[in-house]
Amino acid sequence: MTALVRIRDLHKTYRRGPETVDVLRGIDLDIAQGDFVALMGPSGSGKTTLLNLIGGLDSPTAGSIEIAGQHIEKMRSGELAHWRSQNVGFVFQFYNLMPTLTAQKNVELPLLLTPLNAAQRRRNAEIALQLVGLADRARHRPNELSGGQQQRVAIARAIVSDPTLLICDEPTGDLDRASAEEVLGLLQQLNREHGKTIVMVTHDPKAAEYATHTLHLDKGVLVEQAA
């Protein structure tokens, strides 16, 4: 399969007072179009840093990140923000839903940056909510939904713009096992049936079983790759 993500000699260094901390140390990685990758490793191994770099939320100290033929490490902040809005959907551990908005209005939020009119935004949000099995909860606010339902709304919001890539940071970390399996099954469905490329950070080996590949980081180095 064609590589959607190509990473070469990727480094990320932070300054903490007088100290320099090397978080990522020379990562080389290809992620194929249509892959579902689980990224695992101990705390502090660089998982979230790598995820943020792939999603364009941060910039590398050195190295290259090529996604769908575009070198995002060369983009300026405004250009990168536009690229993210067009190409990446984000799912976080704590949902990040607006508490005063209904599920439908939360899902519509990314579409406010597009030329779509109100009716088109509403229709696209309805389709996304139907895809995640929550069409009947469109008018409910987050506090009227379970944790698993809130995360499914967050996934609907992530896919409503039909992004190239889904970035998921511990998407089941705040859920009970039954809700976690429901969310993971949905991500697997989006991967298998809709061709979404997914990169997911998780600490849970059971969650990683839903992925097509597992990557292991330790001290900023890719130490193992298993199918």
UniProtKB/TrEMBL annotation:
<dbReference type="InterPro" id="IPR015854">
    <property type="entry name" value="ABC_transpr_LolD-like"/>
</dbReference>
<keyword id="KW-0067">ATP-binding</keyword>
<dbReference type="GO" id="GO:0005886">
    <property type="term" value="C:plasma membrane"/>
</dbReference>
<dbReference type="Pfam" id="PF00005">
    <property type="entry name" value="ABC_tran"/>
</dbReference>
<keyword id="KW-0547">Nucleotide-binding</keyword>
<dbReference type="GO" id="GO:0016887">
    <property type="term" value="F:ATP hydrolysis activity"/>
</dbReference>
<dbReference type="InterPro" id="IPR017871">
    <property type="entry name" value="ABC_transporter-like_CS"/>
</dbReference>
<dbReference type="GO" id="GO:1902495">
    <property type="term" value="C:transmembrane transporter complex"/>
</dbReference>
<dbReference type="InterPro" id="IPR003439">
    <property type="entry name" value="ABC_transporter-like_ATP-bd"/>
</dbReference>
<keyword id="KW-0813">Transport</keyword>
<dbReference type="InterPro" id="IPR017911">
    <property type="entry name" value="MacB-like_ATP-bd"/>
</dbReference>
<dbReference type="GO" id="GO:0022857">
    <property type="term" value="F:transmembrane transporter activity"/>
</dbReference>
<dbReference type="InterPro" id="IPR027417">
    <property type="entry name" value="P-loop_NTPase"/>
</dbReference>
<dbReference type="InterPro" id="IPR003593">
    <property type="entry name" value="AAA+_ATPase"/>
</dbReference>
<feature type="domain" description="ABC transporter">
    <location>
        <begin position="5"/>
        <end position="227"/>
    </location>
</feature>
<protein>
    <submittedName>
        <fullName>Putative ABC transport system ATP-binding protein</fullName>
    </submittedName>
</protein>
<comment type="similarity">
    <text>Belongs to the ABC transporter superfamily. Macrolide exporter (TC 3.A.1.122) family.</text>
</comment>
<dbReference type="GO" id="GO:0005524">
    <property type="term" value="F:ATP binding"/>
</dbReference>
